[in-house]
Amino acid sequence: MKALIFFGILFSLSSTYAAEESRFHLLNMKCEPESASDLAETSPQSPPLSVDDPGTPGCNKWEINFLMNGDITKNEKTWDLPLLDINYGIGDNLQITYEVPMVKNQTEDSNQTSVGSSKAGLKYMFFEDEESKVQIAFYPQVEFATSKENQDSNTSGSITTLLILLSKKLSETPQGDLILTTNLGYTKSTNPNVVDTAFFAAGLGMPLYKKISIMGELATEQALKKQDDVRDQLVKANIGVMSPITKNLFVYGSVGQSIFSSDEKTHTYVLAGVRVLASGF
C-alpha cells in the first residue's frame, strides 16, 4: 500500500512538472519551424575555432564541412588536407558527427601523407533557456584509427573525449548578437603514446559587418601526467571569421598562435573551409 501511495505521489509530481515548460529537454523529435534570420552567425564554434557551441544542425538537417587545417612550426608542418566533417541533426537537439582527415606531415627530411584517425560523436543539447539565452550540451566523442595499418600497429588505441558546451548571449546589435561560448573537457586514452588530458576553451563572437562575423578564442590543453619526464601543455589563441555565400553555403577561416607550448616551439595555426547545409530524410 505504501508503495502504491509513493508511486502515486511520484506520478503526480512528474505530471505537474511535465505540464510546465521545462528548460531541460529530452530528445525532441518534433520538428519545430525554423525562423529565418538576416543576422550574422556569431556563435563561436568548431570550425573555424577549437571551441564548439551547443547548437545542432536542426531536425533532419545535414551540416557538412570541407576544410584545410594546418599546424606550422619552424621545422615541421602538419596539414589536414582535407578534413571531412559530417553532422546530422536528429530532432531539434541531438546531433551525430563523423570526421576524418587526410594528414600530410612535412619535415626537412620527410614528406608523409596518410589517412588520419576518425572521430565519431553525439552532441545532446539538454538545456535551453530562452529568457536568459543560455544553452548547454553534452558532447561525448571517440577517436579511433581509420586505416588497417594503424589499427594493427602497437600504438593503436582509442581516445574518448567528454565535453560540456555552454553558450550565452551577452548583448545584441542591429547586425547580430554578442555571444560567449565555453567548453570544459576530459580525454581518456588507451593509446600508449597519448596521455589523459584536460581541456578548456572560451570564445567570444560578434558581428563585423552585415552578415560577416568575427570570433576569437583562448584555449588550453593540459596533460594530467608526465610522459618522458615532460607534461604536455598548450595555451593558444585563435581569431576567425565566417560569412554566408548563400542560405545553405558558408565560408570561414581562422589564424592563431600558441602562447605557451611545452615542446618549446611556436605553433602557427591556419584554417579555411566551406560549410554546406542540406535537408535530410
- Report the span from N to C terminus: 49 Å
Question: What's the mean pLDDT score?
Answer: 88
Number of strands: 13
Largest beta-sheet characterization = 12 strands, antiparallel, barrel
**What is the CATH T-level topology?**
Lipocalin
Could you spell the SSE succession in H and E letters?
Answer: HEEEEEEHEEEEEEE
Q: List low-pLDDT spans.
A: 1-20
Cα radius of gyration in angstroms: 21 Å
Structure notes:
The chain has one domain (42-279): Beta Barrel (Lipocalin), CATH 2.40.128. Helices cover 8% and strands 57% of the residues. It has helices spanning 2-19, 148-152, and strands at residues 61-72, 76-90, 94-107, 111-115, 118-129, 134-144, 159-172, 177-189, 197-209, 212-223, 233-246, 249-261, 268-279. A twelve-stranded antiparallel beta barrel has the order 1-2-3-5-6-7-8-9-10-11-12-13. A hairpin with a 6-residue loop joins strand 12 (249-261) and strand 13 (268-279). It is globular. It starts with a helix and ends with a strand.
